[in-house]
Amino acid sequence: MRIGISITSRYSVSNARVGAEYMIQRAKAAADAGLDSFFMGDHHVTPDPYYQNTPILARCLAEWRDAPAGALYLLPFRHPVLLAQEIGTLASLMPNRFIMQCALGYGEREFAAFGINPTHRTSRFEECLEVMRRLWAGETVSHQGRWTINDARISPTPPEAVEVWIGAKAKSAIQRAARLGDGWLASPQLTPDEAKVDLDYYLECCDKEGRKPGVTAIRRDIYVGEDERSAQTIGGAMVAAGYQGMAPTATIVGDAESVANSLRHYAEMGYGDVIVRNLVSDQDEALASTARLQLVKQYLSLYSQPEKSCPDS
């Protein structure tokens, strides 16, 4: 199983430079831990500072290692020509492939701020993705639909094909991921039992579409403690307080070995990637938890090589 990270973009800070520096520090910690992929999310008009993914990703790539990276984009809010150009530029900065995670978006505030009818979000998503793929392929594109586009062509195009992971929880969205995506990103809200049900449904949808299943990824919000006791004191307390409205079993809290055991369960289900997010907001604790993911990766590696001894912690 590959372990990637999605760093949070929302910080309750009075000085905007502090939150931006926190993101840069977290990118470096993820690189130092040898994680397999790096991402950030996408929201708009939020009450707290929320750093926009294209510019902050460009900065964080300077701290990241030579491994895949990307961001999640809520496509209904994005003009396909502009976003295709931005991703073409970002991909040109990277020695490895760009992964675009994408989703429909939700919340009346965001749609109202952009003047978008939420009932159009599915058609806007599919049209945006179609136009961007054509632009990335080097085509000159004209399009009439949710956007009117005449003779658009972009340069630079991505040096290699952009990999598209579609975030999906509803059945119709999972069907869309199977039909249009290079991969599927399961919801962070899922309990382990729900994660297995949704994975089976995605594979069933791929079979119906006559397509080979793509990347199967799931986001898990976690805290890796120095030991089990401190993990429960710090991370467990946040989960007990109702963290993000998630079911406690949708999160993972423990020392490196117990976190690795939990992740192994998802690998045994059939997930190939887990994208973690720190569930603690304290910067020092988030950095320490990220650093311990290197040990988590070592444990996961040893599980497939039982003759080797456990890593030193």
Q: How would you summarize what this structure contains?
A:
The chain is of the alpha/beta class.
What's the topology here?
Elements: E1 2-7, H1 16-32, E2 37-40, H2 53-60, E3 69-74, H3 80-92, E4 98-103, H4 108-114, H5 121-136, E5 141-144, E6 148-152, E7 163-167, H6 171-180, E8 183-186, H7 192-209, E9 215-224, H8 228-240, E10 251-254, H9 256-269, E11 273-278, H10 283-303
Parallel strand pairs: 1-2, 1-11, 3-4, 4-7, 7-8, 8-9, 9-10, 9-11
Antiparallel strand pairs: 5-6
Helix pairs in contact: 1-10, 3-5, 6-7, 9-10
Task: Give a structural overview.
44% of the residues lie in helices and 19% in strands. The chain is an alpha/beta fold and 313 residues long. It starts with a strand and ends in a 10-residue tail after the last helix. The relative contact order is 0.13. The mean pLDDT is 96.
Could you list some keywords that capture this structure?
19% strand, two-stranded antiparallel ribbon, 313 residues, globular, alpha/beta
- Distance linking N and C termini: 21 Å
Q: Give the count of helical stretches.
A: 10
Overall mean pLDDT: 96
Order of helices and strands: EHEHEHEHHEEEHEHEHEHEH
> Are there runs of 5+ residues with pLDDT below 50, and where?
none
User: Care to count the β-strands?
Assistant: 11
Decide which structural class fits the backbone. Answer: alpha/beta
Radius of gyration: 19 Å
Biggest beta sheet attributes: 9 strands, parallel
Fraction of residues in helix:
40-55%
Shape: globular
Range of strand content: 15-25%
